[in-house]
Amino acid sequence: MQAKITVMSISIFIVLFLLNSAIAREVCISCHKTVTPGLVKDWQTSKHHEMDVTCSVCHGKKHNSRKNVNLAQLPDEHVCAQCHETQFNQFIKGKHNLGWTALNAMPVTHLEPDELMEGGRGCGGCHNMGIKTEEQKKELHAKGYRYQNNSCDECHTRHSFSKKEALDPHACQQCHMGYDHPQWEMWSSSKHGARWFAKEAGGLSKDAPAPKCQDCHLPNGTHTNRTAWGFLGVRLPLPKDKQWAEDRITILKALGVLNPQTGKPTARLDVVKAADMVRLTEEDFQAEREKMIKTCSKCHSKSYARKQLEMGDEMLKKTDHLLAEAIKIVADLYQDGILKKPANYAFAYPDFLYFMRTGGGDFKEASYIEQVLFQMYMKHRMRTYQAFFHVNPDYAYWYGWAMMTKDLGEIRELARQMRGTHNSP
């Protein structure tokens, strides 16, 4: 008898729980069909809807009317991790998790309009990815940016959180395109991209190899993404090649990682380490390189894949030589008093992490020769070596290498004119 009562009690509890859950869900849906109809439609077509993952699971139960909207919980990655623990643990090991850290490590970030950074309509729109501290969240909320709180929805957009969407290369396009990292343009116009589009259109068999972004950078569904060279295109230790080592030291000085006067590491090196922007050991670099060769060998021979990646390394060495000469030309202008050191610069030396700004609080732009130098580094050098790794011949030459040589020629001529003007009576 006691057992029957217990079973009945549990049954009643489950019924009441489901009933309350259904009532709460209907309250949310009936209101938000008017306020945010697009979000409701996305949720209704999602797997979360199929599995009865209701609004309160992610947003809590405190917000239940128009009067207490501020009580709605905006879920971060840890909420997703309650069900997707494996993906979360993979994500925190990859560079996507460091998007927000890397953005805030850039000194120029703190000089730009808030709307572009915290507001998410510039760099912050993509670099919002990554786990934030409670202090960072409070700072964002104080500025009214309550939605800047998540990472998973950069690829699985809310509220559909579609796996199919995240596996489409267009999901990568929104961030990996444009001025400094046109990976979308490179891939989509490469043979890899051409085959993927042909396959989607039915021009290739379903079994035909047609690699997209995720196949190479997030293979087998992993959420850990890292690359051998990293975004800045530098690494440690220095190469054995004497000239390349000298050129890379010059670039590291222009990145503010090495003191231009002493050659010793600066505090910025610790920031670069924290943001995982570079591979710091030969073992770490080779580990990432071997992962990529393993991926490439799904379609190509390992020897072919290794040779292609080594060609990319050699091309990076050649771009570094051009860039180092340009940096030294501009650095000499500082040294000779022809270019004045900006107030926010730590040294009288080019600083790439201020981009095209002098570091002042009045949005003052850098001099023209400094702008050409930055363009040479952040636009044309990036395109030269990234195009090699994305197998795009046209980008590697006309959008990259050819433009670097043009930049160097312009910097030489500008420096000559500046010196002539400075020395004229």
| Number of H- or I-type helical stretches | 20
- The best one-word shape is globular
Flag low-confidence runs.
12-19
| Count of beta strands | 0
The overall pLDDT, averaged over residues, is 90
- Oligomeric composition of the shown chains: single chain
Query: What does the largest sheet look like?
Result: none
Helix content: 55-70%
Give the topology string: H per helix, E per strand. Answer: HHHHHHHHHHHHHHHHHHHH
CATH superfamily of the largest domain: Hydroxylamine Oxidoreductase, Chain A, domain 2
Name of the top-level CATH class of the largest domain: Mainly Alpha
**First and last CA, distance:** 111 Å
> What amount of the residues lies in strands?
under 5%
Tally of individual domains: 3
Tell me the Rg in angstroms: 26 Å
Look up the CATH topology of the largest domain. Answer: Hydroxylamine Oxidoreductase, Chain A, domain 2
Q: Identify the CATH architecture of the largest domain.
A: Up-down Bundle
If you had to describe this structure to a student in words, what would you say it looks like?
With 425 residues, the protein is mainly α. The protein has 3 domains: 1-65, no CATH class; 90-126, no CATH class; 226-423, Hydroxylamine Oxidoreductase, Chain A, domain 2 (Up-down Bundle). The chain has helices at 2-35, 37-44, 47-50, 55-59, 77-81, 85-91, 99-105, 124-127, 134-142, 163-166, 170-173, 183-188, 191-200, 213-217, 242-254, 268-274, 282-296, 302-335, 368-389, 393-423. Helix 15 crosses helix 18, helix 18 (302-335) runs parallel beside helix 20 (393-423) and helix 19 runs antiparallel to helix 20 (393-423). It is globular and about 80 Å long.
